[in-house]
Write the structure tokens for this entry.
Amino acid sequence: MAEQTKVILSVIIPSYNRKDEIQELLTSLDAQDLDKDQFEVVVVDDGSTDGTDGWIYDFSKTSDLDLSFIRQNHQGPGAARNLGMQTAKGDVFVFIDSDCLAPSNWLSLIAKTFAEDPQVQAFGGRDDALADFPPLLLAINYSMTSFLTTGGMRGGAKKRLAKFYPRSFNMGLHRNLYEQIGGFGTLRHGQDIEFSNRIIKSGATVAYLPESVVYHKRRTSLRKFFRQVFNWGVARINLFKIDSKMLEPLHIAPALGFWFIVALTFWALIFPAVFAIWKLLAMIALSAIILSAVHAAIKWKNIKAGLLVPIVMPIQIVAYGLGFSIAFCRRVLLGEGEFTGFVKKYYR
């Protein structure tokens, strides 16, 4: 049997005032079971002011990682990732967000995929949570990976109701493909989906690696979660304006469901027959949410996480539906330019 070609990986991390997260992420990368000579780490600092540079300098003196640190003026994560690709030395560019942790086999699984199948030119993995994460993060992770709320687009679902697009928290592509399609675009939100869409449209072979998981330790609150998911709804319309194929029926469902509930509630207050239908649907929805809460509590062995699920799930549906609807009215019906949603304190 012929010896497999060794693939060199370049792990590219954009960061903006995330020193604490970078510390945990780089520590997890330092513990990878892949040989250190088979990957490099490129941290692109997007104008941080929290002392990230000083900590990385100290870390580099005690770590044997092949670590590069690049600074740029604050331009956003897409520009940071592009600068990282321009600087990287590897055959395959691998992206991970600063608020993620990488299990020890993360890079070895990726390297093995590219080494064993030369046809693979890009990959996407999934994100998950660790049981010791705060209850709110566990509830958010459950809601964002539940088939009930996302149709299997995220998480480890074998069946999906919409196309899988690799996301920047756990994705990568071969250098040759990058040279063919270019880097990330300028969308404020959803730029990784637009990038993945160009990868798919190029005809490249994209591998979905469910075993290649990263643990997403989001810095969030219910308010921040609402704003983030609202922006995802906005992003879906912006993506639709770029390529209509990036809008599928599942992406429309939360907005339709939200306005259906609003309309049904209004008519239920007027017509008793409609109220009976509303009550039946409300009982079904409540039962589904309660069952989800119980399942989440059992899955994470965390009662608080389960109790938060009935709050998080409706927030996710309402926030996405509102963002989608407002962007649809402004961009599709009124013909306005790109709508960015919430901007402040949002960095991915």
About this structure: The CA atoms of residues 136 and 221 lie 8 Å apart. The radius of gyration is 21 Å.
